[in-house]
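Progress note, sequence design subtask.
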């Protein structure tokens, strides 16, 4: 039996957990003897502190978004040679080392920057010999992620790959453009044409239902557009939309089934969402035009900037009717052609991120086979132009 440890962060539903679960699913479907285990470093250190930090984080971004964005950029995004994480090393480095000694994994996969940083420190101190992979869950790489000592990097785009090669001096055979991995259910042939005679639109606020969704729909009752609203675990939003009793607004409570989500994607003509890495990646793989209703401070604001540059999303204007913006997009051939061109270019860039290729590479690592040929194949996929 081989064991792989996954390190997301915090226990609340997030893209970090979804990516870890997706990779775990790739492996388990192809080899039942592989043990995949998720560990939250904060919970292992102090469960009560993890719960406190989660609640504080959610309240912080809700009540003081600008302050959170400023702190995030100062602590994790504005490169600074004077920044130090020594205090965090003092608190968590020994705990990370103890976890590794107790679990004795064959491979470690980080889907969050925080544990990646500590593993990088241990690797540089020759206190960890186990291969480590960073799998990035946003469309950029913040400053906290470990670089030195990390064996492989699965990055979201060619731009982020070039940053690691040029700015960090990481070898090309360690970096692969895989996109942000998603559940295998979403890896289907694209169909960007409008699917329905009427317009079916998914609206998502993430797993906890954040965003100004109720305000967004106020002026769209009884329109020709059918809205299917993913409320996540936001029960207040679900009840609020139910009380509207509108025939074209359909609130949906938290959906954990990837099969059910895939069905909803397949029936939709477009999605309105926040710029979270995983949701955006799922929508892109399903060929859905993406409209952004809001962005959380910090990470999502940076994601939005990058996605706009790639011409992969459309920002909604709250001064215009939502229905007009959605239907206007589909009636504008210039806009739809531009989106088709952008999405095909992006998906061509991330062709090394197919479930079969990622799982094959990981299985090779944990089996300790000769990796030369596999690396060559992965690099070919990464560089080949269709």
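Output:
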């Amino acid at each position: 039996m081989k064991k792989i440890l996954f390190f997301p962060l915090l226990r609340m539903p997030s893209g970090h957990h979804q990516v870890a679960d997706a990779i775990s699913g790739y492996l388990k479907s192809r080899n039942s003897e592989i043990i995949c285990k998720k560990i939250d470093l904060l919970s292992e250190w102090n469960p009560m502190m993890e719960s406190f930090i989660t609640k504080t984080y959610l309240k912080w971004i809700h009540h003081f978004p600008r302050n959170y964005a400023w702190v995030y950029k100062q602590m994790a995004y504005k490169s600074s040679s004077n920044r130090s994480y020594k205090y965090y090393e003092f608190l968590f480095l020994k705990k990370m080392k103890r976890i590794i000694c107790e679990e004795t994994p064959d491979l470690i996969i980080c889907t969050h920057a925080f544990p990646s940083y500590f593993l990088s420190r241990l690797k540089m101190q020759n206190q960890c010999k186990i291969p480590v992979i960073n799998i990035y869950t946003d469309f950029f790489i913040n400053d906290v992620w470990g670089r030195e000592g990390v064996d492989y990097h699965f990055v979201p785009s060619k731009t982020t790959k070039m940053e690691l090669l040029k700015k960090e001096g990481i070898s090309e055979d360690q970096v692969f453009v895989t996109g942000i991995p998603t559940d295998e259910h979403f890896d289907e042939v694209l169909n960007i044409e409008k699917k329905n005679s009427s317009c079916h639109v998914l609206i998502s606020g993430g797993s906890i239902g954040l965003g100004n969704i109720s305000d967004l729909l106020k002026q769209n009752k009884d329109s020709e557009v059918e809205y299917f609203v993913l409320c996540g675990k936001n029960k207040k939003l679900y009840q609020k939309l139910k009380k509207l009793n509108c025939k074209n607004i359909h609130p949906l409570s938290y959906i954990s089934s990837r099969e059910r989500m895939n069905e909803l994607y397949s029936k939709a003509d477009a999605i309105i969402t926040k710029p979270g890495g995983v949701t955006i990646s799922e929508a892109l793989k399903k060929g859905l035009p993406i409209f952004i209703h809001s962005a959380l401070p910090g990470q999502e604001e940076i994601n939005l900037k990058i996605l706009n540059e790639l011409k992969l999303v459309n920002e909604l204007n709250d001064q215009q009717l939502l229905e007009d913006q959605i239907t206007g997009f589909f009636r504008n051939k210039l806009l739809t052609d531009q989106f088709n061109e952008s999405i095909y270019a992006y998906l061509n860039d991330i062709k090394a991120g197919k479930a079969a290729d990622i799982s094959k590479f990981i299985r090779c690592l944990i089996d300790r086979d000769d990796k030369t040929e596999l690396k060559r194949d992965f690099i070919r996929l990464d560089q080949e132009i269709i």
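The longest helix spans residues 86-103. Work on this subtask will continue into the next period as scheduled.
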